[in-house]
Amino acid sequence: MMKTYRGSCHCGAVSFEAEIDLTQSTYRCNCSICRRTRFWPAIAKPDGFRLLTGETDLTKYVFNTRKNHHYFCKHCGVRAFGIGNETPVGKMVGINVMCLEGVSEEELSKVPVTYVDGLHDNWQNPPAFCSHL
Q1: Ranges in the chain, pLDDT < 50
Q2: What's the gap between Cα 76 and its chain centre?
């Protein structure tokens, strides 16, 4: 069920609202950046995401194909969201599930996860090992 969630980075400088459905799959990826930052995104459509505060508090990082934009708070370093410009679902905003407010531990334990093998550009399949993601 689609719901509007509020979220923020750790220090609160960056805050947002996003319309997401936590009964739909979220993603865990083994690519170099997701693995290092332990990024766990739920997907929002661009028109379902609103940055409320902190635009000037963000640092954008791009690498490799430069298609995806990774945003980090300049103060606490948390990656609250990122923008995928060319993905299998088109342009989307990846919302870090762990940055959402008001989601209980029980609710988090029930959020479905799809594992993807970004390390080998094999996005439609899970990696051979994923329990550590």
Answers
A1: none
A2: 17
